[in-house]
Amino acid sequence: MPDPLFDHFQPEGTPVTPLPASEVRRRGDRMRRRNTTLAAVGSAAAAVLLIAVPMAVVSRDGDSGAVIDPAGTPSAVDPTGPVSTAWVQQIPRDFPLTSGMPDGTSAPGPFEPQIVGPCGNDGWTPAGSVDEASVIWTDQVEASLQRALALYPDAEAAAAAIDEVRSQVAECVTPRGNRDAIEAVAVTSDLGEDSFAFVNRWYSGGDLTGEGHFQQLVRVGNAVLFANGNFGSAGDQAVIDQTADLFRTRTAYTVSAMCVFAADPCDEVPPAAPESSIDGVDLLIGYPDDAGTTSDADGAGASSTLDLCGRTAFDPGNAIHVREANYQGEAEDTRGRTLAEFGSVAEAEAMMEQAAALLADCPEERSASGAAVFTPVDLALGQQALSWTTRYSSDELDGGFDTGLTVHQLVRVGSVVLVAMEYGEGGGSDETIASFIEQMTADTAAVVDQLS
Questions:
Q1: What pLDDT does residue 148 have?
Q2: Does the record bear Membrane in its keywords (predicted)?
Q3: Using 50, 70 and 90 to split pLDDT, how confident is the model at 293?
Q4: For tag attachment on the chain, is the N or C end more exposed, with fewer CB atoms within 10 Å?
């Protein structure tokens, strides 16, 4: 069911009600005629299009400085083109709709909107399609991702479905005053034969809440792929850019497989994406024999979320595959490893950089009885590495440290990040600390070697 959390937000602009198919097609034809006219008079005229909600956007070459018309560019489908195309009317059973989505993604049944459309209006639905399929993933707390694929009678009907969403975004206005509202902001998208993307941003009392929903539509032939998900810090353009890149990367294989729906289709769905590169990695190497077995996480909400000074340094929630190993000894001996495969090298690098920035900004974390002190440690493993010790001081020790010692090691190889943690009584002296780190590093290296 749609998330009731946002029921009280007031849509901006003119409410959009579902249109009959004939009207959708008429409006799509009208928008295409407008685009043809603009192309004829040249780029100078096109540059003066009304910009209702300016913003920086992600361009094809990664430059985020461009400003675009929130309505985007209407779909380019020639209604006078070939009429004899035998458009596919059924989704192949092996179509890779879930490619790039986290483990635990499920197909609950017919499509149900999980989020609202542009500025609170209806948005995209598979109405008018001849076949559809949908999948969803959620961490059971607040994060969610959804995809749907719809086949229409022909390419013109599919294009009109995207144009309808463009129209809804164009009719939205910038929120004003001290009230709750939803703002829709267009984002550049260049996937498939035609695509359109936008972000809904929530206002409470006139201020951005940081809550955002990204929505992407891609058309190939008579098929439309709809992908959406929520994210935080939606007031930050860099975060919007990163989210757009994330969706582009994660839907890339699914979009490529949509060639089966083109006017000149490929013969079959392209070969499946490679299996996870972390499936065969032995995460228990170096652990005691009774450490147990490696557990497969759901791809988010794993126990390996790592905080420093109350902020998240590492979170596998955006990884596409996550595996974990844990060991609890009888005395002071706790160990854990998490292996997270992200959708791209850039995502993995960003996670490492986030952890490094927080460590640099958080030398210690104080409590009522003392402090946890974080000290960086050199680590030369993989393509990118970060390590630190955590030692514990208390007022009872007059600012000195007890013997407890925790060591964290983060190592990146390609799009995979390994997080290793060990706690024990190795903090008694510089010599015991060095010995503890040396043994842990050797064990971590044995895992990293399997990733090379």
A1: 96
A2: yes
A3: very low
A4: N
Residue with tokens 């060095």: 434
The pLDDT assigned to 149 comes to 97
**Which has the closest alpha carbon to 58: 265, 261, 214?**
214
d(CA 190, CA 220): 12
pLDDT tens per residue across span 180-197: 999 999 999 989 999 999
Longest dimension (CA), the chain: 86
Q: Are the CB atoms for 270 and 260 separated by under 8 Å? A: no
pTM over 0.85: no
Q: How far apart are CA 183 and CA 367, in angstroms?
A: 41
Confidence band for 243, pLDDT divided at 50, 70 and 90: confident
CB 293 within 8 A of CB 259: no
Mean pLDDT of all residues in 208-219: 94
With both helix axes pointing from N to C terminus, report the angle between 21-41 and 155-170 in degrees, rounded to the nearest 10: 80
The residue behind tokens 């998240």 is 312
Residue 267, C-beta contacts closer than 8 angstroms, at least 6 positions apart: none
CA pair distance 127, 22, nearest whole angstrom: 13
Our measurement of the distance from residue 441's CA atom to the centroid of its chain's CA atoms, rounded to an integer in Å, reads 31
Structure tokens at 336: 């854990």
C-alpha 386 chain-centroid distance: 24
Q: Which domains does the chain possess? A: 4-261 (no CATH), 289-451 (3.40.1000)
**DSSP string covering 275-344:** PPTTTT--TTTTS-GGG---EE--SSS-TT-EEETTEEEE-GGG-SEEEEEEEE-SSS-EEEEEEEE-SS
CA proximity to 337, closest of 427, 223, 214, 422: 422
Average pLDDT over residues 50-65: 29
